[in-house]
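Sample pair:
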Amino acid sequence: ITFLLQAAQASVLTAANMAPAAGLYEFTWPLTGEGWRRFWFPCRPVTDLVGLAVRADAGGWVDQPLDGAQLVQSHDEPQLLLPARWPGFAGGADTLRVQATAGGDVPAQLPQAIVMLAHEWQRAGIAIEDTPGAPRVSFGVTRLIRQARYTPPRMAAAC
């Protein structure tokens, strides 16, 4: 049952775009076009910015200052807002890497969905290692996930 609960937890949190546990995560975004200063995180919550870097022409990462960078709406629609004259935009960098602390707060519906899903799998006799594709998920589990699912409104925007 422990393995079923772990697999159900991973499935439900992935489906809801929630970080599996509070910790340090890395996110990357392409730096294409002019004027992109606002980036939406693909999961929530994001509680702290730890580091910023850009990929230089040579392919290596170059650390950038956090000065002026802001974490906006960290629990609802977490966004990184970079200042207009942020030095990482100069020099032809093609990718932004953000290190941030994310996870921790799980909506009340998700633990219930995890238990329901593990129970359904156990009742159906599904072994995690024997399942080639994703097993069917009941309507109740799907509804609970949809209630808590986070979908960022977009990836990036000009300010």
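The chain has a mean pLDDT of 84.
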